[in-house]
Design a protein that fits this description.
It is a single chain. By secondary structure, this protein is of the alpha/beta class. The chain has 2 domains: 7-167; 188-238, no CATH class. Helix content is 42%, strand content 8%. The chain has helices spanning 7-19, 37-54, 77-89, 95-105, 150-155, 167-177, 180-183, 203-210, 220-227, 230-238; strands at residues 27-30, 66-69, 111-112, 131-133, 140-142, 158-160. The N and C termini lie far apart (49 Å).
Length: 239
Amino acid sequence: MFWTGGWDSTFRLLQILLKEKKIVQTYYIIDPNRPSHGLEMDRMDKIRKLIYKKYPSTKGQFLQTIRTELSDVKKDAVIEKAFKQANEKEHLGSQYDWLARFCNQFEIDNMELCVQKMDSPAHHFRFSPFLERDEKSGKLVFKKSLSNEPEYILFKRFEFPILHMTKQDMLNAARQNGWLGIMKKTWFCHQPIFGEIPCGKCDPCQQTMNECGMRKRFPLFVRLMAKRPLSKILTYFRQ
């Protein structure tokens, strides 16, 4: 599975380790253009240590994360063309291009991609209609009948194990299973303020802030900045 130290992928990691009792191999691609990459790697290290401390039996299950520099992911004309065609229909994050190229380069099938279900229908995962349940694993995979679509070329090596869950669903399950201490160590912001405070403005921050039960993960001033102009915020604190 791709693991970033974020909420969704960490929740899935805990599911695999503690519920399914399976061995898990995690992967992380280092994108030097993303200011948060150092913080994400730091959080992953801290989460790993916390999991080992709280659940010592997982040491044999939780394999060391394989980290790869983005520059080491090879070009692939077929995938790059498919990404361009799919992106013309509706905007896609650029990571889907190099995640697909990475899996193709190393011939990794059944890679888990931890995309969540959104609270709002307006922000659905656009590929949901293209997915179906795999008969063996029960996980969502891209329909083979749509193999001529550019999206199939991008997502044919992926599984989507938590696409049926919102962040609130994961919060409830984490609370029920006693995982909240670990989940609170996760990170999500791509443009952290001073390298350590979630900005409230990037896409992951906006998604997190708009999910039920997630606003408390942001400091008060960040929540205010996301809603009001700076001049109004200063007036608020002067009162």
